[in-house]
Amino acid sequence: MPYLNKVEVMGNLGKDPELRYLPNGKATTPLSIAYTEKWRDRETNDLRERIEWFTAVLYDKQAETVCKYMKKGDCIFVIGKFQSRIYKDRQQIERTAHEIIVAEMQIIHTRQPSVAAPTGLPDYL
């Protein structure tokens, strides 16, 4: 039986990306992505808004590219798989993190007018 685990999210970065390196030297960056949904309340006609936050994890060239060209508030589109992992926080309490492990990404919009758009990027961008 075939299985599918695919997530697509487009939204704005909640903070500046920070490049980190794993013990094996592999570049990585976690992103906090805000998806905003807006609608009108049928009864009051008031504009309503709900923000859903996603954590996406990028590796290698994708991580380096995002850290080089993007800042808080910029828009990104990611495609990947949903993954959960268990970890212990500072108080040694077991927690569960839910993350999108990014396979493909595209920079949609950056707010820095002085930053030239990247050229000659790999196909996965």
Largest sheet: 5 strands, mixed, barrel
Alpha-beta content class: mainly beta
As residue ranges, the low-confidence spans are 119-125
Radius of gyration: 17 Å
Strand arrangement, major sheet: 1-3-4-6-5
The span between the termini is: 31 Å
Give helix % range: under 10%
Can you write the helix and strand succession as a string?
Answer: EEEEHEE
Helices, by number, come to 1
Strand content: over 45%
Average pLDDT works out at 91
User: Could you tell me the number of beta strands?
Assistant: 6
Shape: globular
Structure report:
The protein has one helix at residues 60-69; strands at 7-13, 20-21, 27-40, 47-59, 75-88, 94-109. By secondary structure, it is mainly beta. It has a 5-stranded mixed beta barrel with strand order 1-3-4-6-5.
List keywords for this structure.
125 residues, mainly beta, 5-stranded mixed barrel, 8% helix, 1 helix, globular, single chain
How would the blueprint of this fold be written?
Blueprint: E1 7-13, E2 20-21, E3 27-40, E4 47-59, H1 60-69, E5 75-88, E6 94-109
Parallel strand pairs: 4-6
Antiparallel strand pairs: 1-3, 1-5, 2-3, 3-4, 5-6
Question: How would you concisely characterize the structure shown here?
Answer:
This protein is mostly beta strands and 125 residues long. It has one helix at residues 60-69, and strands at 7-13, 20-21, 27-40, 47-59, 75-88, 94-109.
